[in-house]
Amino acid sequence: MNTVLCVQDLCKRYPGFLLDHVSFSLAPHRIMGLIGKNGAGKSTTLKAMLNMVSPESGRVTVFHQDFYQQETACKARIGVVFGGMEFYPLKTLAAITAVTKRFYAHWDQAQYQRYLGYFGLDERKKFKELSNGMKVKYLLTLALSHHAELLILDEPTSGLDPVSREELLHLFRQIVEGEHCSILFSTHITSDLDKCADDITYLQKGKVLQSADKETFLRSFDHLRAPGDTMPLTLEEIMLRTERRTWDDEAAL
């Protein structure tokens, strides 16, 4: 299988939490949603993949290169957006961009200007003056301005109003179809994935419960439907019923 990202048996231990042999892969020109309730390990998975926290074991391959051995080369071809990233709050966007673009050989200033206009961003503003939604849009602008072939996004639509969320989801589809890019993003807003995801990976308590294309993923949880229910379950319903069943099983022990 041709992949842009392959995660194999990724493990990271914290007191009271274990990221337990997480494995999944992302094919070219696809959008994968990484779902799970708070504390399931979504952000830890992304950070361990990117070596932002050191995994105990596992392998991550990006563009068929070992990420941990070729980290600099791999990072030049990806874009990363994490919620809560503050950069330099007292610096203007122009000053932050001037530093950031030095790290990318394929920086496209014209594309950067286009996304500034698209998102309505003012380079003269300081980073701290942006709303949470505008911060996400600025970070996406940076990620998209060096022709990244893979975007890794942690809760990119969190804090956005409904109109901005729709705008962003539409942009994701455009990017995948027109920019020859793939996207992996974590989210707790499962309705976003109903609209734009091709594949779903579901984490529960640090383990991958299921990872598949969206249609196969939804079918694999048919056993959770109530008797006589002919309507397919939504992602939100799957999460609610799975977590409730897990809680019931644990309470019965």
Automatic annotation (TrEMBL):
What keywords are assigned to this protein? ATP-binding, Nucleotide-binding, Transport
State the Pfam families in the record. ABC_tran
The name this protein carries in UniProt is ABC transporter ATP-binding protein
Q: Which GO terms describe its molecular function?
A: ATP binding; ATP hydrolysis activity
* Entries under PANTHER family matching the protein: ABC TRANSPORTER ATP-BINDING COMPONENT, ABC TRANSPORTER ATP-BINDING PROTEIN ALBC-RELATED
Which residue ranges does the record assign to the ABC transporter domain? 5-230
Top-rank lineage group of the source organism: Bacteria
Q: What InterPro entries is this protein classified in?
A: AAA+_ATPase, ABC_transporter-like_ATP-bd, ABC_Transporter_VariousFunc, P-loop_NTPase
Biological classification of the source: Bacteria, Bacillati, Bacillota, Clostridia, Eubacteriales
SMART domains the UniProt entry points to: AAA
